[in-house]
Amino acid sequence: MDVESAIIGRRSIRRFKQIPIPLEFLKKLVNAARLAPSGANLQPLEYIVINDQKLCDKIFPALRWAGYIKPEWKPDKEERPTAYIVILVKKGISQFSDIDVGLAAENIMILAYSYGIGSCMLGNIDRDFLRDILNIPPEYYIHSVIALGFPAEKSVVEDAEDSIRYWRDKDGVMHVPKRRLEKILHINRF
Ligand SMILES: Cc1cc2nc3c(=O)[nH]c(=O)nc-3n(C[C@H](O)[C@H](O)[C@H](O)COP(=O)(O)O)c2cc1C
Description:
By secondary structure, this protein is α+β, with helices and mostly antiparallel strands. It has 2 domains: about 5-155, 3-Layer(aba) Sandwich (NADH Oxidase); about 155-190, Single Sheet (putative fmn-dependent nitroreductase like fold). The chain contains 6 helices and 8 strands; from the N terminus they run αβαβαβαβαββββα. It has helices spanning about 5-10, 25-35, 55-60, 95-115, 125-135, 180-185; strands at about 15, 45-50, 85-90, 120, 140-150, 155-160, 165-170, 175-180. The strands form 2 sheets. Strands 1, 2, 3, 4 and 5 form a 5-stranded antiparallel sheet that branches. It has a 3-stranded mixed sheet with strand order 6-8-7, with no helix packed on it. A hairpin with a 5-residue loop joins strand 7 and strand 8. The model has no long low-confidence stretch (mean pLDDT about 100). Flavin mononucleotide binds near residues 11, 66, 123, 124 and 166. The site of flavin mononucleotide has 14 residues, from strand 4.
């Protein structure tokens, strides 16, 4: 898959087939994160890959899904992610760590998409709960979690008109409004 197709085609996926992702692929995703740009090349990020299904079940309650979908929704047991990458920031190293995370996360999600793997970045997470279960030392901030798995849902982009809230139609397809190019692009002057 070419880069443009991957960037344009990737959508957040929150329902997954219960097929394991080979560890080799998960390592390639972390390698793609490792190679992302990093402010002053300080590289404050580390990653925990979780592919043990019992551990996946254990961390699931720490995650919050698709906040705009009401009533509150989460993936059913048979459509949960089959792997996760937890993104950790070592404290006191870089003032640009949030930017580094964004770049690393996008590398992960774009490469995953090119392998046919769906992903969703999760920032609404119970950090204390995760720290406890995963034994994460206090010198690391738990930034976010990327949920992964082979997709079991469809998500499409539409032009945002009044609302940016994503929504699901009656067939379960997610619709993601994005602001139109004309609204955000300024050429030569504002
Ligand atoms: C920093 C960040 C935090 C996010 N946190 C969550 C989350 O906690 N739960 C969730 O279901 N989606 C989360 N998302 C996914 C966004 O909802 C999603 O990217 C957005 O709706 C646009 O959809 P798209 O990724 O398909 O383009 C997060 C995305 C980002 C970038």
